[in-house]
Amino acid sequence: MGKMVKPLFITLIILLLSCGTVLWLASNFYGILMVIGSIGLFFIYKGIAANREKVKEDLKRFTLTLSIPLIGVIIAVIIGAIIMIITGYDPIEAYAALFYGGFVRNWHVSVLNAAPLIFTGLSVAFAFKAGLFNIGAEGQYYVGAMVAAFFGITIYLPPVISLPLILLLSGIISSLYNFIPALLKVKTGAHEVITTMMFAHIARYSSSIFIRYMGGDPNTSRHPYVTYPILESNWLPRFQQFLPHANYRLHTGILIGIFFALFVYYLLYYTRIGFEIRAVGLNPNAARTQGISISRNLFIALLFAGFLAGLAGFNQVNGLDHKLFENLSAGYGWDGISVALLASSHPIGVIFTALLWGALDAGGQFMQRTAQTPNSIVEIIKGIILFLVIARYIYAYIGNRIRKRRGFVKAST
Q: What is the rounded CA–CA span in Å between residue 107 and residue 363?
C-alpha cells in the first residue's frame, strides 16, 4: 500500500504548490493565464507523448460522454415544451428567458453555482470509477466547510501560505471523515451507500453545533445562526482584481475546480493507481487475477472522494460566503451525483455538466421572474435528463442479463 500512497501524496503536494502559485498570481490576470496555460500544455504533452492512440481513444470516449447527455437535454427540452403548452405557458418565451438568464444576463451566477458542483461531481465520479457510490458527498462538503471556516477565522498568515494550507486541511479532514466508511467497506463489506449517508447526516447536524460554537450575533444576519466571518486575507482572490468589470462575487474557485478536474483526469487515465482503480471498478474478479488489491484501491478511492468533496466546502466558505451558516450547501453534495451521472463519470465532462446544472438553476430563477413560468419546469427538465441518462445504464444492465441468460441456456443444451 505504501508504494501506491507515496506517489499520490507527492503528486498532491506538487498540486497544492501549484494552487498556491495560482492564488498568489491572482492579482495579475496574465499570470493566471500563464500558469493555467502551462498546466494545460503539460497535460496535453504528457498525453500525446505517452500514447498517441490512447489520446484518440480518449477523444472518442469524451465525445461519446458529451453526446449522450446532449441528446438527453434535447429530448428533455422538447418534453418540457409540451408540458408548458399543456399547462398554458409559452415555451418560446420561457426558454428564451431560461437561456438568457443562465448564459447571458446571470452567467456569473451560473459559474458560482458550478464551482462547488465541480468538486462534488468529481468526488462522486471518482468513486464511481472504482465501482463505489459515494452518496455522502453532502456530509463531506459540510466537514470541509467547517474546517475552512474554523481555520479561516483563526489562521493569521499571508494568503500565499494560508489559502493552500486551508485547502489542504479541508480536503484531508474530509478525507479522514470517510475513513470509517472506507474501513467498514474493505473489512466487513458494509455498503458505502448506507455508511456514507449516515455520516452525511451526522456531519450536517454537527455543523449546526459548530455554528453555534463559532457563532457571531444572529441579529446581524438573515440566517438564524452564522459563524464569525473569516479573515479577509483568507478569501479566495476575486476576478474583479484583474477584470475591473467582472461581477464582484466571482472568485477563482472555479479555476481551482477546473484544475482539479484536469488532475483527476490525469490520475485516472495516465497513472498506475488510476488504472488499478478503474480495473477494480470494471471487473473486480479480473483485477484480482492480475494481482491488483481490491481492498486497497477501494479504500484509496473513498478517501480521495472525501478529499474532493471537502474542497467544495472550502470553495464556498473561502470563495463566496466567507462564513458558515445553516443550509450553506443548497444540496451541492446531492446535485454532485446528478452531475457525475450526466458526465458519465468523466472528469472533464464534469466541468461541462456542472456548468449546465449551474446555468439551469440561474436561468430558472430568471425565467420565473421575467416569463412568469414556474421554476419547477427546470426541475422537471433536470429529472427527464437524468432519467434518460440512467436509462442507458438500465438498458445495458438488462441486455447483459439477457445475454448471460442465453449463454447459460445454450450451455445447458
A: 9
Strand partners for 385: none
75-81 — which CB contacts under 8 Å span 24+ positions?
Answer: 75/384, 75/388, 76/381, 76/382, 76/384, 76/385, 76/388, 77/381, 79/381, 79/384, 80/377, 80/380, 80/381, 80/384
CA-CA distance, 312 to 376, in Å (whole number)? Answer: 26
Q: pTM of the prediction?
A: 0.82
Beta bridge partners of 192: none
Structure letter (DSSP) for residue 244: T
Q: What is the mean pLDDT of residues 361-384?
A: 85
Q: What pLDDT, in 10s, does the model give residues 84-95?
A: 888 888 888 888
- Within a domain: residue 22? yes
DSSP 8-class letter at 224? S
Percent of the chain surpassing pLDDT 70: 77
Q: Is 239 exposed, middle or buried (0-12, 13-18, 19+ CB in 10 A)?
A: buried
Which residue type is seen at 218?
P
The single-letter DSSP state of residue 157 is S
Q: Specify the CATH number for the domain of residue 332.
A: 1.10.3470
Cβ neighbours for 237, distance < 8 A, ≥ 6 positions apart:
23, 26, 27, 159, 251, 252
Residue 259 is assigned to a structural domain of this protein: yes
State the total domains in the chain: 1
Per the structure, the complete domain to which residue 188 belongs is given by 2-398
The predicted-structure confidence for 234-271, as pLDDT tens digits, reads as follows 999 888 777 767 777 888 899 999 999 989 998 998 88
Evaluated on CA atoms 186, 283, 140, 192, the torsion sign reads negative
Task: Using the CB atoms, write b or e for 380-393: b if 16+ within 10 Å.
Answer: ebbebbbebbeeee
Is 50 within a domain?
yes
Report d(CA 193, CA 178) in Å as an integer. 12
Cell of 103: 448564459
Residue 195, class by beta-carbon neighbours within 10 Å (0-12 exposed, 13-18 middle, 19+ buried)? buried
Q: Is 246 part of any domain?
A: yes
DSSP class per residue in 323-351: S-BTT-STTHHHHHHHHHHHTTT-HHHHH
pLDDT of residue 7 exceeding 70, the answer is no
What gap in Å lies between CA 374 and CA 207, rounded to an integer? 32
Whether 355 and 297 have beta carbons less than 8 Å apart is answered as: no
How far is 387 from 377, CA to CA, in rounded Å?
A: 15
